[in-house]
Specification:
89 residues, alpha/beta, three-stranded parallel β-sheet, 34% helix
Length: 89
């Protein structure tokens, strides 16, 4: 899919709290899981912010750290109020 020259995009990036992210690999626990989720978020944000067609990056998260990192990088932030109601598998 390609846009016309000069197309401008809004990118909405939902982010789980880092401690709950990257839940599929069951062997990742504690700080390693959190650090990996944070690193993936930072890499994704960097890619979004360096994509010329993106004019409005928006991060939706309940994680205060992710919110602060997004705001510091120049993205808009929205506090989702996400609260898991079932165990994350």
């Amino acid at each position: 899919m390609s846009g016309s020259p000069g197309s401008r995009w809004t990118v909405l990036l939902p982010v789980k709290p880092f401690a709950l992210g990257k839940s599929r690999p069951r062997s990742w626990t504690g700080a390693a899981r959190r650090d990996i989720a944070r690193a993936v978020f930072l890499d994704t944000m960097d890619t979004i912010l360096h994509t010329p067609e993106v004019c409005r990056p928006i991060v939706v998260t309940a994680d205060p750290e992710a919110h602060a990192l997004a705001a510091g990088a120049g993205a808009e932030g929205s506090h989702s109020g996400y609260r898991p109601t079932a165990p994350v598998l």
